[in-house]
Amino acid sequence: DGVEEIIRAHDHYMAAQLERHGIRCLRGRAQFRSPSAVDVLRIDGTTFEVRAPRIVIATGSRPRQPAELAVDHEHVLDSDSILALAYLPRSLVVVGGGVIASEYASTFAALGCAVTQIDRAARPLGFLDAELSERYAQALGAAGGRFLAHRSIAAAQWDGVAALEITLDDGTCLAADKMLIAQGRIANVDGLGLEAAGVRLTARGLIEVNAELETTAAGIYAAGDVIGPPSLASAAMEQGRRAACHALGLL
Q1: How far apart are CA 58 and CA 189, in angstroms?
Q2: What is the pTM of this model?
């Protein structure tokens, strides 16, 4: 379909760009052995070593999975699996009040889906000025959606036929075709062996970097979601450029 065609076209473009610049791509799961050595585990189980004086970590992030809700990627979705929907659901419950949750809530509402956005906070996008949050809530309401504040999901279960049966912490019962869990993302740092490289994490589990995107280990840089906000593709590209330029002495 159209989505797969776009993804294939993007993959082809990126592969051509890498080839044009003489960049060698190695596929596998990487783990630091030292600040200058990385072990790469292939899919067939074999391992090979890569050494370099300068390394950039750009492993991105993944959706946060709340312990109290099981994401099955069919009825209960996360911000990645919702992109694989083959049809527009009639109703959608969005759990979360941040940027990702609000983006999806407003998009699906604009497409005619009955959207209910739920969050423990008093208002959506709480890091913004109250007036901006209110404008968002008004726009969501005008599109047929609604925001429920100071609420959380107590239970959610597929009825086996047509809908999710959702119970809120105050006893309110809802029914929806799909539910989206969008309560933030976490950095992909598990299994990287950062301790062996001397790369330190922040209290939030993000890779700590300085103004030049260099980590606490000299010669190792990080860019993108793995270092935290603003967690945007455009910002990640600029961070990667800055990190590479500094690593090569071009800044």
Answers
A1: 10
A2: 0.86
